[in-house]
Amino acid sequence: MANKTVTLLFLVFLLLNGCDAAINMNGKIASINSGKFLYQDGNLVSNYKANIDMVWQACEKSVAELKATDIQKERKISTGMIKAVIQDEKVVIKVEYIDRDLTSVSVFVGTVGNNMASRLIHDKIIGNLGRN
């Protein structure tokens, strides 16, 4: 219990200070980059200050603009998932309701995760959210 508390406090400290770091927690790798994105087990996760419907539409538009193929969409009330192939890489985008105007988006690219490609997809989503 104390180990988890120390790890949590360390993560909060890093988020507040806005620096980059990587931590191994029970075999899972978590990396914090400037407090805006969380990179964990190959997933690049960020929260958007928008409702889930707007974020879902931005994700769909981003996938279309990136000329994705083999697109599979699954949408529920509080979650959604888009699986596709973009430039020969498998991509999984997960959308999750957090609060009325707060939505979490996780992007996983390739077989082990690609931070740079995931960031580019997040940037595309951010751009499409700005156009709504």
Key words describing this protein structure:
132 residues; alpha+beta; TATA-Binding Protein; 8 strands
Task: Describe this entry's structure for a reader.
The chain is of the alpha+beta class and 132 residues long. It folds into two domains: 1-35, no CATH class; 42-131, TATA-Binding Protein (2-Layer Sandwich), CATH 3.30.310.80. Helix content is 36%, strand content 42%. The protein has three helices and eight strands. The chain has helices at 2-17, 52-65, 115-131, and strands at 21-25, 28-33, 37-40, 43-48, 69-75, 79-86, 89-99, 102-109. α2 crosses α3. It is globular, with a radius of gyration of 15 Å.
Give the topology, please.
Blueprint: H1 2-17, E1 21-25, E2 28-33, E3 37-40, E4 43-48, H2 52-65, E5 69-75, E6 79-86, E7 89-99, E8 102-109, H3 115-131
Antiparallel strand pairs: 1-2, 2-3, 3-4, 4-8, 5-6, 6-7, 7-8
Helix pairs in contact: 2-3
Count the helices. How many? 3
Largest sheet: 8 strands, antiparallel
β-strand amount: 35-45%
Topology as a string of helices (H) and strands (E): HEEEEHEEEEH
What is the CATH first-level class name of the largest domain?
Alpha Beta
Domain tally: 2
Structural class: alpha+beta
**Named CATH architecture of the largest domain:** 2-Layer Sandwich
Terminal Cα separation, in Å?
44 Å
**Structural shape:** globular
Count of extended strands = 8
Specify Rg, calculated over alpha carbons.
15 Å
The named CATH superfamily of the largest domain: Kinase associated domain 1, KA1
The percent range for helix content is 25-40%
Strand order of the largest sheet: 1-2-3-4-8-7-6-5
Poorly predicted parts: 12-35
Mean pLDDT figure: 81
Assign the CATH topology of the largest domain. Answer: TATA-Binding Protein
